[in-house]
Amino acid sequence: RRVLLLGEGNFSFAAALCGARGTHVVATCYESEEEAAGRGGAARSIRRLRDSGAEVVFSVDCTKLKQYFLPGEREFDRIYFNFPHCGRKAGVVKNRELLACFFHSCAEVLAEQGEVHVALCSGQGGTPADQPRREWHNSWQIVAVAAGAGFILSDVHPFKAETIHGYKSTGYRSQDKSFCVEGALNHIFTRSTPPLCLTPVSCKAQLGSQKVSFQVPQVLVDKINRGFLELNSSHPVRTIKEKLSAGLSQAFPLQNISSCLPLLHQGHPGGVCHSSVFWVTVSPGEAPSTEETSQGLADAVWFSHFGQDTDRDVREGCPIPKQFPLRPSLLPHAQAITQRGAFSPGTLHVLSGPVFRQCRITPHSMPVFHEMLVVLAVSRGTENSCIQMLVDNIKTTTSSLHQAISGIKPSINLREAASFGTELNDFAAFECQLGEIQHFLCVGTDPDSSGSCVGVIRTAAAELKSSELVVVSASLNLDLLAMLLCGISDWRMLWTSDRRFLQQFPEGELRLFKSFSLYPPSYVHDVSFWVPDGEEFDEVAFHTLARRVSGETVVSVQLRDSFQQPGTGRRSLCYRVTFQSCDRALGCREAAEMQLRFREEIQQHLGVTLR
């Protein structure tokens, strides 16, 4: 591998590396050869480097690296820059500027899978790894600076000078004097995946005898057909679904519903807030291809409270409504199957697939997640014992998985619906809108926690041939389960396009997740505006616009102030919007551009007047 060392003072660090097998060292410094050789021990280190076959290059500016290497010589596997400094008494601002130019220069000579190692003295980096930690404005802000050039901090560890044979620091205030490296840290940066350039995506579907198409909402374009639950997937949500299914099959005869689950639902789901659903506008389209149909673009199903008249009208070719909700739940599909009498009593039927819901921005609120719905028709009077068997099985499998991953036994509780009060997370709150719930299934990461709701249990009178049957169903949020079991703190990581995520789960093995983007920088912007007179402000639509404009890099939206103007009664709102990416580099300039676009979008789509 090719290793580039920059800013060498006495070349003692380079000399310690040059003997490594399979490594070609290119050692450089900013000074001329005459100036560098005057430092104590430098001449000896330079001779050793040259004798070992290493390259030694002088007068190299770390901000213009491309100029010093031919195109075929620019693919360095590692770039080291130990204790960069502008010299003499340069302050933090000048050193930030140096690092910014350095990282931009690195991007031109680093191999695609390469690493950039930057060692800084204690406190300079400004990350939580520094102990003690300086105030942000007084640090070099290295992660934010690197993000501007497309790099993320993937690891940080102590710089152990004592383990580097012959190493001696030099260059204190541009003199041949050593400086203190106690508490110094080595920061390891890697390339980030580039920002997604999303183009509009249209889907085709068949409604009865009519062919229609619709445009996928922009916030879902990169999530609509990811195939996480397909047979060749090693994604943790599929692994958890398969483990749960295997456990359930030990207690019940089990049948996976392999039929194509439709993306469109007919009518407005009863009790569900209109703004909680993604509505798509359909238009006449060509017949869907076999491939498109196999991806879940089949006939729409109907919310059961609408009855069968609308279904018959569509089958008979009557005009169809123009707006449909994008599948917010698998429950209507299960209801449609029970109404057709396609459920075998005593057999556990398993449906799974992504569902889509508009929601506010929080680390655990997901506009899309994978639902696993298990449905069982049982004899009236036996439903409670069946629920207990079902829950016990899910608890056993989940507990076993969590202990295998983290070695800690989790808390798994079945809570009565009446005991929850206002503690519901977004998943549970939406499920309550779909119909009555008997129990909530809560999972915590330690035995003493009350846990987060990951599933709901329902019972309902079955619309089957026999009135003696009751349908028991359990809806599980596989994404929330994956986060809890694998220690993933942000739902967005489950949808990352960075290959390093799935590499941590080889062949579907579940492990504790280790983030490849440490201490991502955040950028705070405020926006205030007048609300249109006489209108209720749609906060969910506001959050959805923030998702769309930022490409899911807004991590928090908080209401800071609400003001009503005396006399006119006009209402003004002020929100604080925080931008932060969990998996890719996000620079301050990019975040500022997003904020400007966001201001334009809310003005155009929500009718507000900016202040």
Automatic annotation (TrEMBL):
Question: Per its UniProt entry, what is the enzyme's top EC class, as one word?
Answer: ligase
- Chief subcellular location equals mitochondrion
Gene3D superfamilies hit by this protein: Bira Bifunctional Protein, Domain 2 (3.30.930.10), Ferrodoxin-fold anticodon-binding domain (3.30.70.380)
Record keyword Cytoplasm present: no
CC terms in the record's Gene Ontology section: mitochondrial matrix
Q: Does the keyword Phosphoprotein apply?
A: no
Question: FDX-ACB domain location, by residue?
Answer: 518-611
Compartment(s) where it occurs, according to its Swiss-Prot or TrEMBL record? Mitochondrion matrix
Gene Ontology BP annotations: rRNA base methylation; translation
Drop me one GO molecular function for this one. rRNA (uridine-N3-)-methyltransferase activity
* Signal peptide (UniProt feature, chain positions): none
Pfam families documented for this protein? BMT5-like (PF10354), FDX-ACB (PF03147)
The reaction(s) catalysed by this protein are: tRNA(Phe) + L-phenylalanine + ATP = L-phenylalanyl-tRNA(Phe) + AMP + diphosphate + H(+)
Q: Return the EC number.
A: 6.1.1.20
Q: Output the InterPro entries linked to this UniProt entry.
A: aa-tRNA-synth_II/BPL/LPL (IPR045864), BMT5-like (IPR019446), Fdx_antiC-bd (IPR005121), Fdx_antiC-bd_sf (IPR036690)
Q: Which family does it belong to?
A: Belongs to the class-II aminoacyl-tRNA synthetase family.
Put simply, this protein is called phenylalanine--tRNA ligase
State the species of origin. Answer: Eulacestoma nigropectus (wattled ploughbill)
